[in-house]
Amino acid sequence: MVSHVEKLLFTRELAVLLKSGVSLGDSLESLQDKSHRGGMRDIIDGVLHDVQNGQLLSHALSRFPKVFDQLYLNLVRIGETSGTLKENLDFLSRQLEGSYTLRKKIQSIILYPTIVLTMAFVLGAGISVFILPRLISLFSSFDVVLPLSTRILLQISAFMSSYGVAFFVTLFFFFFLFRVFIVLPKVRPYWHQFLLSLPGLSGFFQDIAVAHFCRDMGVMIESGLPILEALLIEEKVMENRAIAKLIASLAIAVSEGKTIADELSKDRYKLISPLAVKMIASGEKTGKLGETFLFLDTFFEAEVDRRIKNMTVFFEPILLLIIGLLVAFLALAILTPIYSLTGSVKR
User: How far apart are CA 299 and CA 136, in angstroms?
Assistant: First the structure.
């Protein structure tokens, strides 16, 4: 298994070596010597073997489709044909770095709530399975009227005592099946469409998808790929499959002689902002469409950054409030009957 970072480093270092005047074979040998045993080393070994036997780099890389997608292979192929392999590899390294940076930004917003909720879940599970059952006999022996919070807690405790392990195993199994289900090829477009329509989060997912689309299109067009071919490739490599369907429609329109801006102005492409459509129209008229897409990538990534900061500010107090309410509920449920019992003993 080759990570995104390994692929990025391979591309960047190969571009640097070629720019320095080192031949392709010697560059691959240098990367081979530097690589550790494992996935990327095995790929470099295979690519070097093919190149030394007279194969083109694009053909050698095509033997590893799970690592090098159509966008990557076509940019390398165009670079070999036009003599701009060094420049295209540099474009690819920047594209991979942009994708990696965006992924890390998304992970950063998910990390904090994930840690907090996971710890709360583990703590709650531990209390429910190991501590609450011990409280049933204690509270049941109290000769006082138990408050509502304690009665609710006792019901939860009784349920967990009888079905706790089965409940958490079922919950884990459900999430596992859900995760498997949403990555099925026929299901992914519907799941991605759902994410794009989520209230409060739709703009965030839309900006991520549009930034991805603009970055890939900008890199491909600047590298010399025709617009229609770039759209067809992007439809295959686009992670958001709901957006990929729109790109397929856009490619059909372009093949019929329509401009990208004219097609994007239709209602079905409403997730693309009017500002972006106007800029794309300007880029088509001036012949600077690749630069325009790369600028839009920067713009939408800045929007993603802004949304991440806003979401962080929004989620942190909500998480603290939820945890505070849970702690308050447990404290009331456990301490209130004890306090009532103490008061009755004093009387």
Answer: 58
Per-residue 3-state assignment (H helix, E strand, C coil) for 100-151: HHHHHHHHHHHHHHHHHHHHHHHHHHHHHHHHHHHHHHHHHCCCCCCCHHHH
Q: What is the pLDDT of residues 210-220, one digit of tens each?
A: 988 998 898 88
CATH number 1.20.81.30 is the correct assignment for the domain at 97-347: yes
Q: How is residue 219 written in tokens?
A: 């890199």
d(CA 80, CA 82): 6
Query: Is residue 109 within 8 Å of 311, Cβ to Cβ?
Result: yes
Residue 170 predicted with pLDDT over 80: yes
Question: CATH 1.20.81.30 residue ranges in the chain?
Answer: 97-347
Q: Return the SS3 of 270.
A: coil
CB 289 within 8 A of CB 301: no
Residue type, 346: K
Who has greater pLDDT, 130 or 327?
327
Half-sphere exposure of 137 (CA within 13 A, CB side): 4
Contacts of 321 by beta carbon, 8 Å cutoff, 6+ apart: none
Q: Quick one: which H or E segment has residue 240?
A: none
- Alpha-carbon gap, residue 343 to 347, rounded angstroms: 6
d(C-alpha 49, C-alpha 36), whole Å: 17
Read off the pTM.
Answer: 0.76
C-alpha pair distances (Å), 219 with each of 74, 90, 98, 222 = 11, 10, 11, 5
Cβ-based burial of 150 (10 A; exposed 0-12, middle 13-18, buried ≥19): buried
For residue 83 the two structure tokens come to 């003599």
C-beta of residue 85 within 8 angstroms of C-beta of residue 73: no
Tokens of 311: 């979401």
Write the pLDDT tens digit of every residue in 213-248: 998 898 889 888 889 999 999 998 888 899 999 999
Q: Judge whether 124 and 326 are in contact, CB under 8 Å.
A: yes
